[in-house]
C-alpha cells in the first residue's frame, strides 16, 4: 500500500534537507507509536520538487526584452530591443502562474501485513488534521492497491 501527503509550503526556514530528515524520523516514530508496530513494517520517503530555483520564482531570473518604438531608436542604431523592467511585467502576469514553487511529498509505504491496518489510514488522517492546524497546505491521496 502506498499513501502520500503532498506538502505545498514555502514556510520552511533554514536547511530544508535537515528539516525534512528530522520530519521524516519524527513521523516514523509517531506512526510506529500510534500503530504499536515495528518501524520495519513501513517506510517514509520525503521528496522535494522545485522548478530549479528552490523556493524562488524561476521567472525572476528570466530577462524580457521588447522592441524599441520608432521614436526611441536612433538612426543607424542596430540595437532595436530594450530590456523590460520586471516591475512592468508584474501587471501582465498570467493567473496560471503558480504562487508556490516548491512541493514536498511525504510518502508512506506499508511493508507489513498483506493489507495495511485501518488504523494506518486513521493515523494518516490525524496527521493531515495536524498539518491543517499548523497552516500547511497539503493534499493527501491514496492510490488503489
Automatic annotation (TrEMBL):
Residue ranges, annotated region (Disordered): 55-92
Record's compositionally biased regions (Polar residues): 70-81
Protein known as: Uncharacterized protein
Source organism phylogeny: Eukaryota, Metazoa, Spiralia, Lophotrochozoa, Mollusca
